[in-house]
Specification:
It is built from 4 helices and no strands. By secondary structure, the protein is mainly α. The longest helix is centred in the C-terminal third of the chain and has 23 residues. The relative contact order is 0.16.
């Protein structure tokens, strides 16, 4: 899978718009647009970092729900 498609799928898996995802991850909207459109290519580790962040947040959310 190419990086552009991978980043777009990660964002879409959250149900967030580009603007929301930008605010959530701290990645500028224009950068996300360029990455998803394939106009620019991020370093190969970026999709892994984003996936890690999303997975971590999901695990923490589940942990909090189990504590309540």
């Amino acid at each position: 899978m190419d990086i552009a498609k991978e980043i777009k799928e990660l964002r879409e898996s959250t149900g967030m718009s580009r603007k929301e995802f930008s605010e959530h991850t701290g990645i500028p909207v224009r950068t996300l647009e360029d990455w998803e459109a394939g106009r620019r290519t991020p370093p190969e580790y970026i999709p892994r970092l984003i996936a890690y962040q999303l997975k971590y947040e999901e695990l923490m959310k589940r942990k909090e729900e189990n504590l309540l």
